[in-house]
Amino acid sequence: MLENNEIRAQIDNRNETVGKKIREAEMSKVPFMLIIGEQEEKDGTVSVRRHGEGDIGTLTMEAFAELVKEEVKNSLKPFNV
Amino acid sequence: MIKITLPDGSVREFDSSVTPMDVAKNISEGFARNVISAKFNGTTVETTTPLTEDGTLVLYTWKDDEGKKAFWHSSAHILAQAILELYPDAKLWVGPAIDRGFYYDVDMGDNVITDKDFKTIETKMLEIARGKHDFKMRSSTKEEALAYYKGRNEYKVDLVEGLEDGTITFCDHDTFTDLCRGGHIPNTGIVKAVKVMSVAGAYYKGDENNKQLTRIYGVSFPKQKELKEYLELLEEAKKRDHRKLGKELELFTFSQKVGQGLGLWLPKGAALRSELENFLKKAQKKAGYEMVISPHIGQKELYVTSGHYAKYGEDSFQAINTPKEDEEFLLKPMNCPHHCEIYNHKPYIYKDLPKRYAEFGTVYRYEQSGELHGLTRVRGFTQDDAHIFCTPDQLDQEFKNVIDLVMYVFGSLGFDNFTAQVSLRDPEKPEKYIGSDENWYKAEAAIINAAKEKELNYVVEYGEAAFYGPKLDFMVKDALGRSWQLGTIQVDYNLPERFDLTYKGSDNELHRPVMIHRAPFGSLERFIAILLEHTGGNFPLWLMTEQAILLPVS
Ligand SMILES: [Zn+2]
Ligand SMILES: [Zn+2]
Predict the structure, then answer these.
(1) What pTM value is reported for the model?
(2) Fewer CB within 10 A of the end CB, N or C, for chain A?
(3) Which among B279, B546, B554 has CB closest to A8?
(4) CA distances (Å), origin A46, targets A10, A53, B95
(5) Which candidate in B173, B425, B471, B518 is catalytic?
(6) What is the ipTM of this complex?
(7) Has domain A3-75 been given CATH number 3.40.720.10?
């Protein structure tokens, strides 16, 4: 899903506690953390944490992809000659 | 009566012997309260110096660099007095203002200053400052000056020995006196906050065969609040140090085995680099650049032709020899000579130009080990280099296009605060420069015209151009208010001459193309370092090589 939207994402599947994974993701300054619990999995949503801001709510994958695309578009305009 | 011209061009008349402070009060009492130093006819004077001839007067407040210089210079006097009061056997050498603060070099004798002593020194300095002692300049004969220091301070004796009689001045305040050329704030009371920052060893006269003195670094401010903000900024800068972030984010490393100043890019750093390269490649393609590739070495003759051997040969990496005698190669210190030879691979007519050759070209320059610093000063680095070869008439448009590209790069990476400097010839010494007058006029007009049309915030500096052409530099302010030079655009009349570059004009004659060197990033190493310190590692989302991480909980 994220791949199709050209969003560069990784999955942290290591056998570690969630706390540790969050701390490490925090350290690496990755802009978005997508936490998928049982409820989210059932609903097809993700709980999104923004680096430096914290929780920004639960979104569908589509809505999240849209959010990222929008921000990329705003920070990187095409070069017009 | 004398005529005093102010920076806005206005002229005011005063009785002779008026002081800069009198002039300030004449302008407005409120302004005068903030004036702390002055320059008269280009020379630094005291705010109390009587002016006795017509001239131009510039008055400075804390907000001006010159004001800060006077403030910190004066603070060095206060530091020196505090040191002598606390350590009567200490011997002073010199203590200038620096970029951020000041220092004093002192022979501490048997005493050692450590950070435990800083508080005591600061308290003493503030006690002196609160006395609101005036800084007063006094002339002295060489004889008097020597008599004053003989037997008590051999460093000052040596300084006085080197001065001409008739030029020697002292500055007195409170009970303290020091050999000094001048440039003080009115009194010590203006200094409201001080901080001793650090101590370091410094050889007398910078010669390691001499005695090691103690260099005491300090900084001071007219408000406690400003000191607090400054210390917070330093703390933030430490957190954002690119060497620290590079390690934490696993972007790059250095290895003693590989060699000092030779960065090793780790997978995440390499990904970041190629993201930046792709970003620029895409924009450059749109702007009509063509990518080229050239080797990392070239024959020595190539650099003799270009003139780079004369500049980098002796002090840089030495020649690479081959089994064949007399054959010598050099690691390239610049990409330009290779690109000139790329241009030379076939004849051009005017319709073929401009040619814009771009390369992420890695160059090597031997920096002294003491000069090396993380990724900002290295011995091998990759320039986002390009050379544009055009006709003199195309210069105008090409310059504008390059400015557009540079501004696009800055905008996309969140550098919103920048100024430009246009460096032109010294109009009084045209013989110092190569290239025809006509071409210089054209190029200088093209740069200024482009800067104007692109609405750059720019200053013009005469006499700052290289001997081979005028240039435009961008100075970028980062998030912590520090300035970095990025994105130089340099016109060059020299290399086309040296490499005998030509094109056939519409008149069927051969002409010299003009060359433009330009690199919006400068080098990828330095640029990434600056970007890390500017953003603290939180790059714009488009540049993040990892934008999201999925954390399954169950
Ligand atoms: Zn002084
Ligand atoms: Zn060049």
Answers:
(1) 0.81
(2) C
(3) B546
(4) 14, 17, 61
(5) B471
(6) 0.96
(7) no
